[in-house]
Amino acid sequence: MTILSTKDLRKVYGSGENEVRALDGVNLTVEKGEFIAIVGTSGSGKSTLLHMLGGLDRPTSGSVTVDGKEIFGLKDEELTIFRRRKIGFVFQNYNLVPVLNVYENILLPVQLDGGTPDRAYIADIIDTLGLTAKLNNLSNNLSGGQQQRVAIARALASKPAIILADEPTGNLDSKTSQDVLSLLKVTGQKFSQTIVMITHNEAIAQLADRVIHLEDGRIVK
Fold first, then answer.
1. For the whole prediction, is pTM greater than 0.85?
2. Which of 85, 94, 120, 143 is paired with 75 by a 20 to 30 Å CA distance?
3. In which band, very low, low, confident or very high, does the pLDDT at 175 lie, cut at 50, 70 and 90?
4. Across all residues in the chain, what is the average pLDDT?
């Protein structure tokens, strides 16, 4: 079952001599349960692509369909609600709320949407990610690897259609990076989660089921 697809996706900045084609006709299909890595150097368009897939920015042309919904056909408020319910994000800088403890951070997206957390499901995520002993800690009392595990748990908590991970190991050392990526893959498999990860690191990308290379805003292989 296709859970995410793009059709002739383009993002152009500027015009004339200053025109930059950040995305230049990207066609991509991701099946439910896949773990995809999108690899590219700085300036290849991979972060722009992630922003489009997550509905964080609108394309110049083309479409993005998530869980059967063409997301850029939605008005801004509708898109915000859809994104909160259907798309989980894991960022390089964790983006945890410093005044909330670990458990409160994990529950936050569900509560912001006015939903009732599935506490048994969330407890299973917490146990899988080895966070049970840290639930009352504030984020600034955690290591980088622990903070990223909290971010993964938060992304999973609302049972989204897809998880988008933007350089999730960018601030971690190599050993912690491998640990976090392994946990991301394990949790994805255990909870039948679709994951699209952006990275510049070829070695990390090899943990994914499929690797897609992006150059100059185009998929090259």
1. yes
2. 94
3. confident
4. 92
